[in-house]
Amino acid sequence: MTEARGNARPNGAAPARYAPGTPCWVSLMVHGLEATEQFYGALFGWEFRPGPEQLGPYVGALLDGHPVAGIGVLPPDRHLPIAWTPYFASDDVGATADAVRSCGGTVGVGPLDAADAGRLAIGSDPGGAVFGIWQPPAHAVQALTGAPGTPSWNELTTYESAHVAKFYETVFGYDEERTPSADRDHVTLRLAGRPVAAVHGLGDALPRDRGPHWTTYFTVADTDAAVDRVVHLGGQVLTRPHDSDHGRVAAVADPEGARFALVGSPR
Hints:
2,3-Dihydroxybiphenyl 1,2-Dioxygenase, domain 1; 16% helix; 2 domains; alpha+beta; 8-stranded mixed sheet
């Protein structure tokens, strides 16, 4: 697990435009926007401001004035899972959406304009895992990363990595680095030589009630303290904090059931 996005500068200016395929945003669609704002505001210190009207009731989450994530409201007639969705950058969201379809994926939303926020689409890979495509405007400011309360990594959990990794490689131009292991199906997706995401195949061990899905990791200063805070705020602990090769990690869920991971320095 390695930082996949460049940090925003202190004045909020982007150091460089997102390269196509770069993980560039995460968003969450929920039923109760106000309660969700309270949860993540207390957990990560986020503040919120209204987002593009084209996305319906939607707010942008800010940390020290810098963009971090987005939260919107699910339409009442759409029975979709409550889940964090990673977005990958594109220079032409229409062309990328066409590539998704031609490679066996689907596009369920868009491409559509989101006012000054650019253009976006939401699709799913051949296994059914949902992700977003974002074509930022020329003046876009890169989301803040690297600080506690910011997204730092995305990992896809699916049945097997080979076919699905090839899908993302073809659509977004990734290279793959496969973990040499007889009992672990794991691929790191790399862009211009740096790791940007991972694909982990579980085979029949993949929970049937969830299916293939992306998980977003958020950086925290203290994983154990953050997990205690999640519980205090009404969330759930799915995997207790434990040290890993990439830091101290825990899996949790917010009060509406959206799952995410926390990662901090090892103890």
